[in-house]
Amino acid sequence: MICGCSKPQSSSSAAAPAPAPAASASAPSASDDSGAKVVSIEASEAMKYNLTSFTASPGQEIKLTLTNTGNQPKAAMAHNWILLKKGVDAAAFDAAALTAAATDYIPAAQANDIIAHTRLLGPHESDTITFKAPTEPGDYTFLCSFPAHFQVGMKGTLTVK
Ligand SMILES: [Cu+2]
Question: pTM score, two decimals?
Fold first, then answer.
């Protein structure tokens, strides 16, 4: 239709009630608005994760943040978080990662062993990734592949159930 009207369609600018502020700012480890499971993990200079096990439903979306709480330079002490597929030999994966410094200790030949991973974090850096939990119930190992960290226990388990 042709509309010569000059009157701008008052598109609810000022009159519109402000949308209710999202009441979801809290809820630290539950779910966000999309139903994703929110997980926050700290990686310390003690070469440990502060969270070594958590659960998810099959196929659930997971929003995971890894934070490196340490002060040491990245070359000496960095951390990542790598979730391996079921049945992958974590020790063998970690051994392969040792030679993958050029790719931040993510071994290219083992890319198929990985469900999800963060980037390698220097001091006080953090990274947030979103991925879907496996659909098959069971235990899935996660680890830090920076040299020696897995061997001293920088690992944990995601249980899908
Ligand atoms: Cu580490």
Answer: 0.80
